[in-house]
Amino acid sequence: MRTKIGLIVAAASVVAACAADAPTGPPFRTDATVRMLMANLVDPAADLVWDAVGTIVDVNGENHWEPETEEQWLSVRYGAMSMIEAGNLLMMDTRARDQDQWIRLSEAMMDAGTLMFQAAEDEDADRVFALGEDVYNACNNCHMLYWIDDADRGRAIDSASGGAAP
Ligand code: HEC
Predict the structure, then answer these.
(1) The pTM is what?
(2) Which of 115, 139, 150, 152 to mutate to test the pocket of ligand 1 (most atoms within 8 A of CB)?
(3) Which fold has domain 31-161?
């Protein structure tokens, strides 16, 4: 028993010594602010999935579009995958506004992105279209809580996404 405790103490001090010397983790760079991520990663990613499938009915009749080529499907998968990974970026130390609600809302965006990715892998245009609403809600739920009373909000919506973003 004695030796066992001795060993544990010795092991613990080795760990402590390493912790003091070693860096705390990979040298993540978090210079990009939440706003920069939104404007240059999250919003363009959402546009790729939102714009991929649609129908417009006007005097000339019905115009429907959906991905047809491998390249067009890749662009939907790319948008969805970017959204999933952007969730991780939003949860990083300097970006997370809190450790509770913000984390859950970031995860909700990742969940919506994951379903979207699967639909794109299955090349199921109807599902991509339907899931667009889940993505929209995931964005909007966070914006209602954390992007409020911002005088620039209208401008950002106009300039960043042609008026279509939440
Ligand atoms: C976890 C929270 C969260 C989620 C999820 C989120 N956003 Fe945001 N978003 C914010 C916050 C906070 C701001 C305001 C940032 C600021 O001005 O500092 C913002 C700002 C923006 C802006 C304005 C950027 C600018 O140029 O000022 C756009 C566009 C945007 N979000 C799009 C989206 C879209 C599209 C989604 C979903 C695919 C999304 N966001 C999901 C928190 C979130």
Answers:
(1) 0.82
(2) 139
(3) Four Helix Bundle (Hemerythrin (Met), subunit A) (1.20.120)
